[in-house]
Design brief:
single chain; about 140 residues; alpha+beta; 2 domains; 4-stranded antiparallel sheet; 3-stranded antiparallel sheet; about 45% helix
Amino acid sequence: MTYTFSWHVPAIALAIAVIAVAIGFVLRRKRMPTRLVVLAFAVAALLGVIVAPMLALDRVVLDDEKLEQTTGFWFAPSVKGFRIGDVEFITIGTATDNKGRSHEVWNVRLKGGQLLQIDPGDLWEMNDQDIIRRLREAGVDVR
């Protein structure tokens, strides 16, 4: 099973980028301060070149061998996950970051005794109930 964001999620970021470009041209044509024009084009570049492709390429893959998430910038993606055959059990809990915010954490105990602490991304969390169900069906002890 491959989980991805719906097509409209990156499309919204791309649409906002196009609107920001149009605003930039209007501001430039009306001879508005340069900093406003630059700001509009910077927003367009950020959303159109970084955010939209990032959202379009994010994916979580759950198959017979692994649970793996590819996320982050399109030019430097990060991959996190585990091989299903190596798992002894999984506990799902919460952790607190440096700013005192709580977030979900998957503690994966491997058969060799190693503990992986995985902070699932938004896409993983959005589909965690289905992922848990499928892992349990595959014989993984999820607590």
